[in-house]
TrEMBL record:
Residues 191-359 form the PCI domain. Belongs to the proteasome subunit S10 family. The keyword Coiled coil applies. It comes from Selaginella moellendorffii. Keywords: Coiled coil, Proteasome. This is 26S proteasome regulatory subunit RPN7. One of its GO terms (cellular component) is proteasome complex. Residues 68-99 form a coiled coil.
Amino acid sequence: MEADKEACQDPRLELARKLFLLSAPEIPDIEKVQLKEDVIAAAREDDMAGPYEGWCHKFGWEIDHALLAKMRAKIDEEVRKLDEKIADAEENLGESEVRDALLAKALFFIRIGEKELTLEQLKITEAKTVAVGHKMDLVFHTLRLAFFFLDCDLISKNIEKAKSLFEEGGDWERKNRLKVYEGLYCMATRNFKKAAELFLDSISTFTTYELFSYETFVFYSVVTSIISLDRVALKQKVVDAPEVLTVIEKIPHLSDFLNAFYNCQYKTFFFAFSRLTEQVRLDRYLAPHFRYYMREVRKVVYAQFLESYKSVTMDAMAKAFGVSINFLDTELSRFIAEGKLNCKIDKVAGVLETNRPDAKNALYQSTIKQGDFLLNRIQKLSRVIDI
């Protein structure tokens, strides 16, 4: 059963992952040789003439002109056959057959990696589509195409389009799938809080195997939740979640990363964190935010440690994290200067003193300020009325 689910993963998105790794400087040249062979094999199998030519220019590969000509000839022949089927359906068959023939042409353009032709054909197919469910399926086709090219504008527009369609109707299965698509978009655009919320809402109903495996889904859920949820929510929704517990041990270092963070085992956490960074760096959706994510994780874990103390020595904190005092001093100084940690460093005494903002006092001051503003407005209004 699990193998059948994995087989449903969109091959275009797996190809996009390999193309990303070909551009990653961390990948050894010997691995890139195999990646190149896989990419060219995929292009040959699906007649991806346009993308193949583009990849050759991008990566400096020599173009196989005979292969390119062969792929283009096969594309022309297939388009001719599809056009004949569309014409036959329009002349001799019903509207549903016409729609199916138009969709077949759109799916062919998706297969060969032609973005603009696909979007144009999907628009033509949508004009012949009546059922909301079928329209939603067209949106999902568009979203996967947009994720292949990482066209965030196209993703955003189609997520909004899907939400509008759901106002006309739509089943729960498609609604749950859309949450994962939107969560992936939010993560890819650095909205980790919204991504975590959407992923966790879908964790017990996940069926979106066309995007990624369930292990990858849990990985995304954990890494976004760590920097987005408070301790109570993290415990309830992630640490103790049965869906997470079933697969987390299969993902290298993720269990230590999550549990050491929650259990305040900071040395273990930092070790797991350092091992997990490679997975974040080599993920095509997370990689652009690698430095930001690393900072956010460190900020959250430092804040959690300092929450327990009014003051603590730098030496004690450095030992807890398994790092040097100089490293910790540099790290904390940067976060304090940016206003991300509420503490100050007494360099002479080698002590960290927390200065948490008093929420009640801040609320009191805000109420007084708003009250003064309201009284001034009332006085001005009373003078106008007197006149």
